[in-house]
């Protein structure tokens, strides 16, 4: 795989994971919801607050995107600095790329599961849906999950192309 293609994919992954992390980190919404305690009295407005750190799946998604973003930045610099590396170095980069893919997919899966419960609720557990109340918060989380998933696929393409180019790059020359 060419150094230019590798670098472009790493920068794309960096921008996507950085964007997802920023979107999660600044995401919060407060909405006042009218609640009626007794039929004879007027409803009372209660503040419904949604913040990313209220849900551990979103904390994990943020941490995974920050780690993936940092790795993408560092690996881009390393790949650019060491253009003709040996096979051990190339295999190490591939292992880290695949590790990042696993971490991002697990974080996206956790956040997506929590997000679906937020959108639909769970009648068996009597959990009400909340995305009808804090819709902006849920929309921004959904966008960050999509950005993170696209970054995961960029890392998959990076690892796949690197594995496929190993025999060509490091084949014994006769």
From TrEMBL:
TM annotation in the entry: 52-81, 93-121, 141-164
Compartments where found: Cell membrane
Superkingdom assignment: Eukaryota
Protein name: CASP-like protein
Chief location bin: membrane
Annotated PANTHER family: CASP-LIKE PROTEIN 1U1
Native species: Hibiscus sabdariffa (roselle)
Membrane-related topology note: Multi-pass membrane protein
Subunit structure: Homodimer and heterodimers.
Family: Belongs to the Casparian strip membrane proteins (CASP) family.
Keywords for this protein: Cell membrane, Membrane, Transmembrane, Transmembrane helix
Domain Casparian strip membrane protein per the UniProt entry, residue ranges: 4-153
